[in-house]
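Just curious: can you write a single protein's sequence together with how it folds?
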Amino acid sequence: MVKIDQERCKGCGLCIRACPHKLLSFSQNVNKQGYHFAVCSYQERCVSCALCAEVCPDVCIEVYK
């Protein structure tokens, strides 16, 4: 399970590029800062590799098994 703090996400896209299964994408909505934040569209397909969390410069992603 991937949990993304939407208000801290600045939409850099590093997590989207890092996901080996291409489960992350940009939201159509924006946060309070005006950024399109990352979302995990297919939680059930996540293998909890945590590559997304490792590359996040804002430390706004947590991964749970």
Remarks:
- The chain has one domain: 2-63.
- The mean pLDDT is 96.
